[in-house]
Amino acid sequence: MKTIKNFDLEGQKVIIRCDLNVPMKGGKIIDDNRILESLETLKYATEQGAKVIVLSHLGRVKTKEDKKKYTLRPIADRLNKLLESKVTFVENTKGEEVENAIKQMKPKEIIVLENTRFEDLEGNKESENDKNLAKYWASLGDIFINDAFGTAHRTHASTVGIAKYLPSGIGLLMEREVKQLSKATTKPKKPYVVILGGSKVSDKIDVMKFLCKKADYVLIGGAMAMTFLKAAGFNTGKSSIEKRKIDFCIEMLDKYSNKIVLPIDIVTSTEINKNATPKTRFINEIGEDEIGLDIGPRTIKVFKQYLDDAKTIMWNGPLGYFEIEQFAEGTRQILEIISKTKGTTLIGGGETASAAINMGYQSKLSHISTGGGASLAMLEGKELPALKVIDAKKQKK
C-alpha cells in the first residue's frame, strides 16, 4: 500500500485527512493526544514542500447549534502553536472562501478546513459518503493522504470518498497503527494474551469470537466481567448485566474454558461516585445491593501470572470504573505489570488508551492506538474501508 513517502509532494496540494476528534469542554481541548500523533505526517508533508489541506471531523453534529460547539478553530490554533509552518483556519467546508484560500497558498503552508461533519446537517452527506461532496473535496487537491486511523472503519466522503478520485496513500500514523495492530491479528508471538474489559459484552462479541481462536488466554474484567460471572452462576448484586448476552457468555465459557480467565475477586460499592466506599469481595460474596466496579487484588495477581511471560499482549477496554480513583487500581496495576514485560504491548484505543496516557504509561508500552472503533474492527478481523479503497483502487482523477 502506498504511503505519503511514495509521492513527490513538492508544490503539490496535498489533502490530509487527520483524526483531530479530541475531547472538548467549554471550547477548550481536554486531551490533545490525537493532535500530537498527527504532527509527524503534517511535518513530513510541509518539509517536502507540500501545500497541505487538512480535513477532520469533530464530535457528532446533529443541529445548527452544534456548529459552535464543534468548530475546528481551537484545533487549528493548537496546530499553529505546535508546528513551525503557518496554519490558517477556514471556517467553511466548501465554497469560494475555501477555494480562494487554497489558491493563495504557498508551499509548506497548512490550511485547516471546518469540521467535515457540518456537511451532515444537510442530508448526512459526509457520513453517508455523498459522491458529489467527495468529488468536490477531491477537486481541491492533487494528492490525498489518509492519516485518520480513528475513522478507518467508517465509509465517509472525507475518507473513502475522496480516495476514489485522487492518487491516494496513507500517512505515517496510519501506517504505524496498521503495522502494530497487525501483530495481534496476523501471527502474534506466543504466548499471546488478550485483556478485554469495558462496559458491554455486546461491544466485544465479534472480537471475542475472533481473538479466542488466536489467543492463548483471554483475561476478562470491567463491567462485562459481571455478565460473564452471572453466566457462570454467581450473584452479581446490582451490577450492570446484559441479560440478553448471558447465553453468549455461557457458550464462550463452555467452548473456551481453557482460555477464558474471569476475576476471582471484585471491588464493589453500593454507589458510583467520588464518595463511594469500596469493598473487596470474592466473587461468591457479592451482596444484593453491591455493584462490581473493579477487579480485586487477588485477580490482579492471577492476571499477572498470565501476563509476565506473554510475548504479545492486546488490551481493549478498562478493567474498572477508572474515572473514580477508588476503582482505578485494577487498570493501573495491570498497566504497571504489562509495562515491565518484554513482549509487545498493544492498547486498542478508546478509554483504555485514555487511561494509559493519563496514568503515565504512554512511553512504557509498545503501541497505544488512536482509534477505538477502528482498532476493534481490526481485532475482529474486518477489512477497514479507508484502507481497502486505497489498496484496491486504480482510478485516476
Description:
With 397 residues, the chain is an alpha/beta fold. It folds into two domains: 4-171, Phosphoglycerate kinase, N-terminal domain (Rossmann fold, 3-Layer(aba) Sandwich); 179-379, Rossmann fold, CATH 3.40.50.1260. 36% of the residues lie in helices and 16% in strands. It has 15 helices and 17 strands. The chain has helices at residues 33-47, 66-69, 73-82, 96-103, 131-139, 157-163, 172-185, 205-214, 222-231, 246-255, 297-307, 329-339, 350-358, 372-379, 385-392, and strands spanning 13-17, 24-25, 28-29, 51-55, 87-90, 110-113, 143-146, 168-170, 192-196, 217-220, 260-261, 265-269, 279-282, 291-295, 312-316, 344-347, 367-368. The strands form four sheets. A six-stranded parallel beta sheet has the order 5-6-4-1-7-8, with helices on both faces. It has a six-stranded parallel beta sheet with strand order 11-10-9-15-16-17, with helices on both faces. Strand 7 (143-146), helix 6 and strand 8 form a beta-alpha-beta unit. It is elongated, with a radius of gyration of 23 Å. The model has no long low-confidence stretch (mean pLDDT 95).
Poorly predicted segments: none
**Main beta sheet:** 6 strands, parallel
Tally of separate helices: 15
What oligomeric state do the depicted chains represent? Answer: single chain
- Give the name of the CATH superfamily of the largest domain: Phosphoglycerate kinase, N-terminal domain
Beginning-to-end CA distance, first to last residue: 18 Å
Structural domain tally: 2
Shape: elongated
Rg (CA only): 23 Å
Estimated structural class? alpha/beta
Q: Numbering strands along the chain, what is their spatial order in the largest sheet? A: 5-6-4-1-7-8
Number of strands: 17
- Give the overall pLDDT as a whole number: 95
And the CATH topology of the largest domain?
Answer: Rossmann fold
Strand % is: 15-25%
**Can you give the helix content as a percent range?**
25-40%
For the record, what CATH class of the largest domain applies? Alpha Beta
What is the second-level CATH architecture of the largest domain?
A: 3-Layer(aba) Sandwich
